[in-house]
């Protein structure tokens, strides 16, 4: 099953960027994530530990620790404490089967290439890029519809 922690951490940073210098409680941020405030605070703790977010105890005004142009998706990915690669090879294959014996080695080679390519792309995408895309989409929808609540 895929882990959505990276998506949630990016969401938090973009939300904070779009609400710069506003009062942002963990309840408010959690409502945007559709999760609970406790989990949101833990995720914000991960971002703090990675030096991507600054918070003050008792004050509901988190802010990005760096310019959003300087925070890459790779930085956020590293904050998720990736203890395993994006794709994991099943090592529990039959060693008596010619395919089962070699497939983990072959797949590992390709998966490492995919990991490297993905990480290189993550290093080029910033929180500012994503925030800009979100702003454009919000402006488009606000002009054409009243479907969404104000950010």
Automatic annotation (TrEMBL):
Record InterPro entries: Tscrpt_reg_Rrf2, WH-like_DNA-bd_sf, WH_DNA-bd_sf
Domain of life: Bacteria
Gene3D superfamilies linked to this entry: Winged helix-like DNA-binding domain superfamily/Winged helix DNA-binding domain
GO MF term set: DNA-binding transcription factor activity
One cellular component term from this protein's GO annotations in UniProt: cytosol
UniProt-listed PANTHER family: HTH-TYPE TRANSCRIPTIONAL REGULATOR YWGB-RELATED, WINGED HELIX-TURN-HELIX TRANSCRIPTIONAL REGULATOR, RRF2 FAMILY
Stated name of the protein: Transcription regulator
Organism: Liquorilactobacillus mali KCTC 3596 = DSM 20444
Lineage: Bacteria, Bacillati, Bacillota, Bacilli, Lactobacillales
